[in-house]
Design goal:
Layout: E1 16-19, H1 21-39, E2 49-52, E3 58-61, H2 64-71, H3 76-91, H4 96-115, H5 120-141, E4 143-144, H6 150-161, H7 170-184, E5 195-201, E6 209-211, E7 214-216, E8 228-237, H8 257-280, E9 285-288, H9 294-302, E10 306-308, H10 313-323, E11 327-328, E12 340-350, E13 353-361, E14 367-373, H11 376-399, E15 401-404, H12 408-422, H13 426-439, H14 441-449, H15 454-466, E16 472-474, E17 481-483, E18 490-492, H16 493-511, E19 515-518
Parallel strand pairs: 5-14, 8-9, 8-11, 9-10
Antiparallel strand pairs: 1-19, 2-3, 4-15, 6-14, 7-13, 8-12, 12-13, 15-18, 16-17
Bound molecules: adenosine-5'-diphosphate (ADP) and magnesium ion.
Length: 538
């Protein structure tokens, strides 16, 4: 334009705006920066990140979602990428890095097409078609998985923990994770909350254990109660074992000391009666959601009952699931059939804290996985690894499908999508091929992180797949091609389907943006063009 036109301001002063290609470039750069940050953590040879927050707290992790969550990312489209990780975390519990890295690569390849003047809506359409094709391919190549297939489930758990702090005791933790899911999983319904991870420092990872029941950071209410009760018959009560002040007539007039004594005796008798109701039911263990009066504690101790007070509502529900006890809200009606059962109820000391273990429950529907490790940082990371493993086992069972990892399924998809692209014409074909290329980022990164030559690796993988070896994956330790399924590198299909779904959806969303208008109201730092607030240089 040769003529200078006076600009018209339609936005308040201080607002910033970037339009068209600029907007797209900014968004893509931000998203790529996020993906690039977590890329080095991918796979068995991935490295960890050390995150230090403003309080000086340190987290050492390899987990994609934890890294992004802790980074406090500010840039709006970078945040959208973090959302992918969050969805992946919620839906599967694993594969967060994969999802983010794929999204970054999809956007990077889209950028290439944009510079070739392919319209964003054409790219979006091509990506959507390719994503659909990818899902179909995954369905087709998947192997069936059933709940009783312990060996394969263990391999899935092991794969989830490869390259994490859990590596040292992978076999043991995989075994615990599979047992935990097998005890609690039912087709009719399953809640991840049914498997509680309890972290404790001290001892080593190999001392981790599966408690077939509940572990609570609570102690018994009276010193002279038994510390351990075998063949426990457990009562759960959600009412207080106290005389509520409102139950006593406020207008009682006490004229002489004997009346006062009678009054106190009456209170004591009421409390005694309550504890008698409990022992009459046959219970030898009591968990009370509310408080227990000192006098009641005394009588319970005398009756040899192990009692805990102020148990959280959550733990009450879990206790009920684990022991089969019914939560009673009326002491009078408490009967033997309301009681739950556990092989052992015991108070144990960890460090200077007392814990109550309700273990050896019959058919527990809620269990606790006690994760042990030398230091806090170690147990924290172990917990994340074990929860990835549990998420993967549950996904594999609930969907009933699994694929081999180590890049095998990505190469299968790449080849299939390219074939599909041949049936298309023109620009869409470019977009579909760009999508196929983007999936190669997974085997490529696995190779790079292992210090291997990515081009050699991809070429070898492709030629193996062309020969019909659908599970040909990369052995990151030798650099050779291996049968990833036989090698036990197995992942639930849902990791891949979910990752591709959210990565392509967000990519599409970002591609459709051609105008970024940011108001100055927030007072915070404005969005730097092409960069991102709060992101470390990488
Ligand atoms: P994510 O957050 O995406 O789960 P991970 O760091 O857990 O990231 O890495 C997952 C990737 O590592 C998957 O592509 C998986 O197939 C691959 N992988 C896991 N174990 C192995 C192994 N033993 N050999 C090769 N690749 C593996
Ligand atoms: Mg993983």
């Amino acid at each position: 334009m040769t003529q200078q036109i006076q600009p018209i301001f339609i936005l308040p002063e201080g607002s910033e705006r970037s339009i068209g290609r600029d907007a797209q470039r900014t968004n893509i750069a931000a998203a790529k920066a996020v993906a690039e940050t977590v890329r080095t953590t991918l796979g068995p040879k991935g490295m960890d990140k050390m995150l230090v927050n403003s309080m000086g707290d340190v987290i050492i992790t390899n987990d994609g979602y934890t890294i992004l969550d802790e980074m406090d990312i500010e840039h709006p489209s970078a945040k959208m990428i973090v959302e992918i990780a969050k969805t992946q975390q919620d839906e599967v519990g694993d594969g967060t890095t994969t999802a983010v890295v794929v999204a970054g690569e999809l956007l990077k390849n889209a950028e290439g097409l944009l510079t070739q003047d392919v319209h964003p809506t054409v790219i979006a359409r091509g990506y959507r078609m390719a994503a659909e094709k990818a899902q179909q391919i995954l369905e087709k190549i998947s192997e069936p998985i059933i709940k009783t297939d312990v060996e394969t489930l263990k391999k899935i758990a092991t794969t989830a923990m490869t390259g994490k702090a859990a590596e040292i005791a992978r076999e043991k933790l995989a075994d615990l994770a599979v047992r935990a899911v097998q005890l609690t999983y039912e087709d009719s319904g399953f809640d991840l909350e049914d498997i509680k991870l309890e972290k404790k420092t001290g001892f080593g990872v190999e001392d981790s254990e599966l408690v077939e029941g509940i572990v609570m950071d609570k102690e018994r209410v009276h010193e002279s109660m038994p510390r351990i009760v075998k063949n426990a018959k457990i009562a759960l009560i959600n009412k207080e074992l106290e005389i509520k002040k409102t139950e006593i007539d406020a207008n009682i007039e006490i004229k002489d000391p004997s009346q006062l004594q009678a009054f106190i005796d009456m209170e004591e008798n009421m409390l005694k009666k309550m504890t008698e109701d409990i022992s009459k039911s046959g219970a030898n263990v009591l968990f009370c959601q509310k408080g227990i009066d000192d006098i009641a504690k005394h009588y319970l101790a005398k009756a040899g009952i192990f009692a805990v007070e102020r148990v959280s509502e959550d733990n009450m529900k879990r206790l009920s699931k684990a022991t089969g006890a019914k939560i009673a809200n009326n002491l009078h009606d408490l009967s033997e059939k309301d009681l739950g059962f556990s092989g052992v109820v015991e108070e144990k000391k960890f460090g200077d804290e007392n814990y109550t273990f309700v273990s050896k429950c019959k058919n527990p529907r809620a269990v606790t996985l006690l994760v042990r490790g030398g230091t806090q940082h170690v147990v924290d990371e172990l917990e994340r690894a074990v929860s990835d493993a549990i998420g993967d086992i549950v996904c594999a069972i609930s969907v009933g499908k699994a694929v081999a990892g180590a890049g095998a399924s990505e190469i299968e998809m790449t080849i299939g999508i390219r074939k599909f692209a041949n049936s298309l014409s023109g620009r869409e074909q470019l977009a579909v091929n760009a999508f196929a290329d983007a999936l190669e980022i997974i085997p490529r990164t696995l190779a790079e992180n292992a210090g291997l030559d990515p081009i050699d690796v991809i070429t070898e993988l492709k030629s193996a797949h062309d020969k019909g070896q659908k599970w040909a994956g990369i052995n990151v330790f030798t650099g050779k091609v291996m049968d990833a399924w036989k090698a036990g590198v197995i992942e639930p299909t849902k990791i891949k389907t979910q990752a591709i779904k959210s990565a392509s959806e967000v990519t599409e969303l970002i591609l459709r943006i051609d105008d970024i208008i940011s108001s100055s109201k927030r007072g915070g730092p404005q969005m730097p063009p092409g960069g991102m607030g709060g992101m470390p240089e990488y």
